[in-house]
């Protein structure tokens, strides 16, 4: 793992233990695929980062500077995962932010997850529900205990992902991926209004895939779907084979979807995978 | 500021940038008053820390060891604030925890907040509401964006604290303190069932003060109360003088309450204060 830490645009040796990212989860993150030295979907990741910072009132690092640092780190990498964290920076004790404190940026380059199961993902329902908090919905912020609790519900390595509902019972997504189900010929994904993360691959689906849309989904809607996929920025689109008692055979529409993604983004044309313990939505 | 960082029971020089406390807010914290070299209400803080770790499935540091480290840091301090963070430790990328990873502990000693206003606190309502999440209610965990958003709603230094409701409209507390209102001769505080922090001073009130109890409270209940106080482990009990249009004169019951606390805990017999930017509930 290679890690760079910055205070504003200055490299620093270590994270300040008073950083508000640690104290309060006061920051946002992005996880992206690096393919042949390039950060895949960079523009979409930066746009979401900027929106998250704006929603939280965190100063956005200079995007031109950030691109240079990311490119330097990604240079020469055949295939890796790059995690980018931006926090409100170090502060004195207390919730009030220090005005004009420079943001903290952490860049960490790690290996890609192992290969995806060729037969599709084995997925389960989680008990840990997501609270309804419109102020934070969509933002990929650092307050992720609800996902941590969900992921702690299973240790069976044969289970690849867990699905979470919100506290009102509506389906939200997987702990580290967005979900789409095929119903009535349309690819449907939960709206990101009360909770959930607005994933970059999800955004690609909604903008570039015909007959894809947001919808309210119950557990029954998901379980009775014609097909189901999970998607995120690192693994692209992966078919789900099993959800509890439900089994799905590979669906022609899923195969076509993966093909369309591979044509749009060559990084996903190679065998892509979904790590069972990632947070890449 | 003096800061010590530990991986398990070993001092380390710097926080691992892959620490789950930063990545996910995957940890808990305590903020306590140090008075004449002693951590005030130590047993209560450790008990809450242990309960929080148990609720989140985080390994609790050895309590005997922790006491020794805290005592060493507090030794010779006339009056300070000690912040203690325990996280699930460093991990690989992804929500799944590394089994048997030692917890990270951070101890930070800082100065006490400035003197409390002699006339009582000036308090306002905040728009940022707290989501209903029973799985995390009561725990002083590191996912604190809701408090950060609330505290960002004002910059007027004459306003000392902000009150938050939950998303269903019930009153929860101040951003960094619990609240009690005097109604019908009783000191009432919101129950910590769906959100909020179970403060140590709040617990003292509920166990040691006659006619104190949990209750559902609306904004109207708070505004029409006979008296109102905020309490936390660093400032003890502070009267509220102003909430929006509402003004309260010092109430004999509030004066008696502060006297009772000072007799029970000598650290609070001296002039205590409530910093407008603390997180000490």
Explain what the structure shows.
- The structure is a homodimer.
- Chain A is built from 7 helices and 15 strands.
- In chain A, helix 4 (about 145-150) links the parallel strand 7 (about 120-125) and strand 8.
- Residues about 270-280 of chain A have low confidence and may be disordered.
- With about 280 residues, chain A is of the alpha+beta class.
- Chain A starts with a strand and ends in a 17-residue tail after the last helix.
- In chain A, strands 7, 8, 9, 10, 11, 12, 13, 14 and 15 form a 9-stranded mixed sheet that branches.
- Helices cover about 25% and strands about 30% of the residues of chain A.
- The first copy, chain A, is globular, with a radius of gyration of 19 Å.
- At the A-B interface, helix 1, strand 5, strand 6 and helix 4 of A face helix 1, strand 5, strand 6 and helix 4 of B.
